[in-house]
């Protein structure tokens, strides 16, 4: 009788061990497949995007404001901006101090201060008045710049408040670092004009952007 009971227990133990091993093998195969698929879906876009990255340097400008722009030579359908740029008035300051916007698309101005301000905006080159409006507390004003260029922003009520707006026809505009380095990401291949503004100076160079990394170095004249 004891031997019979022992044999029954041994058989049950063997069945349980087999079941555990089967579940374990099934679980490993189920989890490895999704991980492999997830990796391939993440890596595939980077390999097939076809766009390039432009990395370059310009002479360090020090305290001089500098901007670098990439303009497609045969520009046709350039996508609209994803968001509307905003310039705010906070604690007697324009935020941000420098705003980069696209020509032909609206810009939102607002005031988060508890006192009256005004926006006196002029073309920095021609001194032509773009607009001059008052903005009360919590007020907003929307404006579309039609012409590319640099615009000075001031508040006549508070002379210490000033800012600058850079209006460009291209979405590719960056402010280089203090060391003169700049990067443009996700640039469609094609022929571009690379324009550098450093203070009152301007420099243009035609470059060909291809898929992958494109290095550009502009030395001091």
In short:
It contains one helix and 16 strands. With 221 residues, the protein is α+β, with helices and mostly antiparallel strands.
- What is the CATH C level class of the largest domain, in words? Mainly Beta
Summarize the helix and strand pattern as letters: HEEEEEEEEEEEEEEEE
Low-confidence segments, given as residue ranges, are: 1-48
Instruction: Count up the domains.
Output: 2
| Strand portion | 35-45%
Main beta-sheet strand count, sense and barrel state: 5 strands, mixed
Radius of gyration: 30 Å
User: What topology, given as strand order, has the largest sheet?
Assistant: 5-11-10-7-8
Write up what this structure looks like.
This protein is of the alpha+beta class. It folds into two domains: 48 residues; 166 residues, Cupredoxins -  blue copper proteins (Immunoglobulin-like, Sandwich), CATH 2.60.40.420. 21% of the residues lie in helices and 43% in strands. The strands form four sheets. Strands 5-11-10-7-8 form a five-stranded mixed β-sheet, with no helix packed on it. A hairpin with a 5-residue loop joins strand 7 and strand 8. The longest helix has 47 residues. The relative contact order is 0.22.
């Amino acid at each position: 009788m004891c031997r019979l009971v022992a044999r029954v227990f041994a058989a049950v133990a063997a069945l349980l061990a087999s079941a555990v091993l089967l579940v374990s093998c099934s679980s490993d195969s189920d989890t490895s497949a999704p991980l492999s698929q997830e990796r391939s879906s993440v890596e595939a876009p980077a390999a097939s995007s076809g766009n390039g990255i432009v990395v370059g340097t310009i002479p360090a400008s020090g305290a001089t404001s500098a901007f670098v722009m990439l303009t497609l030579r045969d520009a046709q359908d350039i996508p609209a901006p994803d968001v509307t740029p905003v310039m705010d008035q906070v604690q007697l300051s324009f935020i941000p101090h420098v705003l980069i916007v696209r020509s032909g698309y609206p810009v939102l101005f607002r005031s988060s201060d508890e006192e009256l301000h005004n926006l006196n905006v002029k073309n920095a080159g021609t001194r032509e008045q773009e607009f001059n409006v008052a903005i009360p507390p919590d007020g907003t004003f929307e404006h579309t710049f039609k012409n590319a260029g640099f615009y000075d922003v001031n508040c006549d009520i508070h002379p210490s408040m000033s800012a600058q707006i850079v209006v460009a026809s291209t979405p590719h505009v960056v402010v280089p670092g203090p060391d003169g380095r700049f990067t443009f990401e996700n640039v469609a291949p094609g022929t571009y004009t690379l324009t550098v503004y450093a203070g009152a100076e301007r420099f243009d160079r035609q470059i060909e952007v291809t898929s992958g990394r494109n290095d550009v170095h502009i030395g001091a004249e």
